[in-house]
Records
---
Amino acid sequence: MTAALHPLALSARGIRARLGATPVLHGVDLDIEAGRWTSIAGPNGAGKSTLLKVLAGLLAHEGVVHLHGQPLAAWPARQRAQQLAWLGQNEVAGDDLTVWDVALLGRLPHQPWLGRPSARDWAAVEDALRATQAWDWRERTLGQLSGGERQRVLLARALSVQASVLLMDEPLANLDPPHQVDWLHIVRSLVARGTTVVSVLHEISMALHADAVVVMAQGRITHQGACAHPASHRALQQVFDGRIAIHAVAGQWVALARTP
Amino acid sequence: MKQWIRQRPLALAAALALLALGLLVLGTCVGSSGLQGLEEVWHDPVAQQIVWEIRLPRSAGAWGAGALLGLAGAVAQGLFRNPLADPYLLGSAAGASLGVCVAMALLGASPLAAPWLVQLGLTGAAFLGATGAVLLTLALARGVQQTLRLLLAGVVVGVVLGAAGSLILLVQPQLMQAMQGFMLGSTALVGWGACLLMLGVWCVCMALAWALSPVLDGLSLGEGTALSLGLPVVPMRMALVLMLALATGTAVAHTGLIAFVGLAAPHLVRAMVRAGHARLVLLSSLMGGALLLGADLLARSLIAPGELPVGVLTAVLGGGYLLWLMHRQNPLAVGAKP
């Protein structure tokens, strides 16, 4: 293992995983530095979500994942859940639960079994719901929300865990542009407070707002580096078969379709 | 906001408990001769004996069986994250029918021949059949890791055991009428012993469902989310499936295959209050108890001195009310997925 500038929040070695009978990850090695935002990008079917599930300890796999230097399997479930939060993609959600109840579920790892929520739990849930601007609908049920509103509630659920490592799979799904910007601010403030954020994003322009990008294709990592580095841009253009081009526009990196 | 969310389920629980109590009292006055005044019952020693030995245990048993089915229905719908799930999903109905069928074929008698003796044997057979079928489903699904596999195994077990039962009926057609009675469900043969047993099982199952309700809450956000929250999903799902088998098996053994209570009770509760699973299981159970108790009263009184099969009434009452609710409200409000 090479020495990193920052301590490692997550490290994965020799990860192989399959979905059903199909091999999806073919020997992935990855280091995620603590207190930074890393995005995972790549074409459909590259294995991004699968890798995120492996990092979250949700999928059987070969190889080993370390969380804060300790193998994931060695963490007791509750302590691990306090340190590592995961927001899935297209997860089913109970339509009958109120927004408040959903966000409160994020506090389960911090509560004694069947214990009442503490003042800290209430505060964490309120902070999370206000951050995603879902506070006003706290009495509504998920069934009464639109796709984007629902996504903001699920995001609040993941935020309310207040974990040191937050893994998010397509967190911007269904979000309109202003709320995508809100999400960027949320991630930036989390990282400023020392939280490690890993996000799978299919929108390359959003992914390039991160500190570092992991580029994947066909179940392998082809590149890992700073988002501003030209080598990262080349790697991204390459995995998309040169069909996108990355430009600097108004101080941001923007991926544009390259028309023939 | 918090006040409203906290108090409304409590009010519903109190209302359902009061309703059950009222129906229980009313049940003491309803007999084969129609409605009797409470005062008349109170002063007539024969009527007192009838109330104590027949009407009261029967009503209490109806509440107990309904409460078990309502509880099992809420747990099944939470566990399988499916609003159409009911307590009989894992093959317990077909298993119980087969158990009763085999027992009757072996005893060579209809339950009317020697009610107490045969009922004792049939109760055990139905319970063994119901729980045995769930265990068979678990074995075929190789545990509870995959919900879909569990559901499919339940369907297969249901079909195969149902076919086996039909085969026995084909060979011994004289059992058909008695079997039909079992399939429609009846509270006629419930005694105090059965009531106590159901109450005991209800306490155990309710405590277990209450204790495991955080898992059901977590599962409603998907299995991945539940696991990421540190919930021991697999062992607790196994515990809930076994609880489901115990509750359903006990209810079915004493009252036959009562239709619709397990499916409808959780929906009726959800149409009235929003609550997490800890409250939902309790409220569904109270709702199931009140529903079956009310249906039993009607079954006894509508065509007195004759009697309707209570299962027919639960289907008509529960189904009718549910349809009315669906008609009145947005379909989402009764738990249907878009």
---
Amino acid sequence: MFTGRSLVVAITIGVIALILLGKLFLIQVTDDSYLRKAEQNAIQRVVDHPYRGLVYDRNNSLLVFNDPVFDLMVIPKDFSLKDTSRFCNLFGIEKDYLIENFTAAKNYSWVKPSPLIKQISKEDFAKVQDFLIDYKGLFVMTRSVRSYPRSSAANVLGYIGEISRSQLSRDSSRYYVQGDYVGHSGIESYYEPELRGKKGVKYKLVNVRGIEKGAFKNGDLDTLSIPGETLISTIDLNLQLYGEQLMQGKRGSVVAIEPKTGEILSIISAPTYDPNLLTGAKFSQNYSVLNSDQEKPLFNRPIMATYPPGSIFKIVQSLVGLQEGILTPNTTFACNKALVNCHNHPSPVNLFGAIRNSCNPYYHQAFRQVINQEVSSNTYIDTQIGLDKWREAVLKFGLNNRLGVDMYGEKGGSIPSSGLYDKIYGKGRWKYSTIYSLSIGQGEMLVTPLQMANLAAIFANKGYYYTPHVIKAINDDPSRIPEGFKVKRDSGIDAKHFDLIQNAMVEALSGTATRAIIKGIEIAGKTGTAQNPAGEDHSVFIAFAPKDDPKIAIAVYVENAGWGGRAAASTASLLIEKYLTGEIKRPELAEYVLKGDFIY
Amino acid sequence: MRQKDTNLHKIDWLTTGLYFALVFIGWLNIYAAVYDEQNATSIFDFSLNSGKQLVWIGTAILLIIIIMVADYRLFHNLSLVLYAIFVLLLFLTPFIGKEINGQRAWFEIGAFRLQPAEFTKFATALALAKVMESPSFDLSKLKDQMKAVGVIVLPIALILLQPDTGTAMVYSAFFIMLYREGMPQRYYVIGLALVGLTILTLAIENNLYLFGSIGVVILMLIGMSKKSWQNAIIFVFLGCIMAVYALSLDYVVEKLPEHQQNRIMVLFDPDVDPLGVGWNVTQSKIAIGSGGLFGKGYLEGTQTKFDFVPEQHTDFIFCTLGEEFGWIGSFVMIALFVALLLRLVFLAERQKTRFSRVYGYCVVSLLLFHFAINIAMTIGLFPVVGIPLPFFSYGGSSLWSFTILLFIFIKLDSNRIQILGRSY
């Protein structure tokens, strides 16, 4: 058909077509990077942030909810200001702040929106709303921040903040991205997976100027966000608020537990802070103030601070002695002040009298019998064997190890082992006279206020406890709380040994803590005074009530408040009254507690 | 007797069918390029470019009818007059034309805009056919070469004054026709060699490699030729000329303003200035490349519709097709074009007069050039020059001029028997 030069022309046409088709094949079929680039171009992934779960107290009072805030967004291309200072006055911002944010927005994109002023509260927004139409290139995006209607329980609830770099790198599920908010402490952190909900994604088509052109594939790939789950806390908000009020101006902790369930009714860290400070736009400013405060309001004392338990530990000593058969209700010792200091009370005393009068020499002598059971003729070895056996029994009270409360940062405290003393004094170089302070809850012994409250719960329950926890139901389903909170734990002490102890604790109030007595409510309690080499002693009190059907077990620890019968016992007594009767009939005692200011 | 001369029944229906197929596909793609899902309007909506294109198509059909019923001798007789008129218009354009994008390439007559350079194409083709029709016209003679080249260079020079480099470049397509008509092959060898050397010079950064490759080529030439001192000296001399050419080209490119340098360099490295000069090519390749084998489906494309590709309904209309119909669609479209071009070569070859054959080859040359360069630029094989894709691109001037160009030839073809029987 074609010959000569016409053939050459025909071939040229064919070759050109083949070159074009070849190149097209390369970019269309073999190289899928163009497809990805096209999606980057035109498909905008818009994350739909879910509402974080709400938290209620045990009586359905709201503790945490989500408050709308408004981000003022700017499209730099459309935005211009004739009167900068008027604008700044209107929105209550500095000119430098405006310039800085607008420059950042321009650098990000000329045509896509960026935040100009972040997190305007709804009150402030109401003031400026009507003026917004005067400005082109501005629009508003609604977000939500955490809000705390009663400004209470900051230490329990914790706070949320932007995810840190290290958290981001630990997130193996790849759920989070830079800029996401996560719980940083308290319930917010522990129950992050339940509270956060599930992010939704919308795929939107945008044109070259970033303007929306509808949903990608009619929204078939979009997912809706699922709001976070509602948590019911074990906290009794009224009790918590009252406790926080009583603890104002003091440094210390209050933990109240429902003994039969391990539910924490109230857990107070003093000094505390208003949780609303750590939300919204002022977060970083307030955080640095709180973080550098010498009184450490961010430090969750009930679970993080450890102290020597002091005299309240005498009850544990009594129970261990009884269980071992070394003590009986009739075991009697003289109050020999040559052994260890004591206050004036009738002597000699039996076990009941020892608890009632908190007799130090009694426990000095009783503990020696527990430790030195003369299984070895070598007193050093005998002490070591005895200590280890004793320690084993004491650990069953939930000491030395973290209890496992549903808040991060809990400390375990410590009950010294023979290994510890070997390290301090050398193996075979310590004996009972070296460690006798343990008998009265001093020495190398540390417990958290939470563990103290748990001891009170064990005493109330006659031997068992549930791991203390602050959440009782997830989405109204109590069975969804962590399994560990449903397990009944045994202290290793037979129930029969507790009657004497409980009666002695009731009596103890009239001996060492008369202020704590409430007419009509039988309170069992024990004071303690933890020696503090650095200053005034710490005031400790544990109690449970009513004795015959305990509804509340409580531990109060007030730093530098001196003798336990005063500040701690009064506070505990008021909280018991508040919880059991719902009102306070002793305003003079409340007055006394409120006036006591123990931060020097 | 006149009536018989129109010879409608002898029209080449295959070519006509291919023409309408391409125009129809082009029209669908113009609609796809401007389609807005959120504000969907009919393809016939006259406020849309697809609706306007329909008007252009309608008037093009009118032009076809006029050409078909006209006397075939008209084009032969008027060829030089038409050429003279349009060259005069081209000459006037820089003075009275409307300035758009820094070019004075358009006439404005009322609401209409006309681009004389578009119409000069078929006028030049007619003039070439007329100049070369004499049997004694011989392209191996320098004098006749000069005549033909002169007819081509005159409009080129005038279009460069506008300035419109892309359109001016189109006129070099006539060298394809000149090749068929007997232009000495050595010009083409030298031309292709120059193009190759230019590409190598720009593509190879390091001059040492470039000179190395030139050296290897020269040694191979010496090895292949008859071994004589004279030959060796000639080839070494040739090598020196190539090296000097390469060096001076480098020098010139470096002296160019940066945006023009980028326009050239973007061919070799698409990431040179992707938001500036590289934007068109980068976005165009993304649009076409994202189409895959089967495409995203009609009206489902995102890149062209959302304006990522500039000029998507005119010079970059191929992007829409590539994105929505994929490689298969591109293949079908290119196959249609190839079929049309080969059919036109066949038709040209069967012409009984040199006038018709030369004109036929002019049509082939122009269509091939537009088609190849336009698609090549959308996929990054050729620098971005503003030339339309024949029958596809939106626009009246372009559609009309290609329609006139093609149908004058179809008309000449349908009358080839009569033409044989007459002498002018």
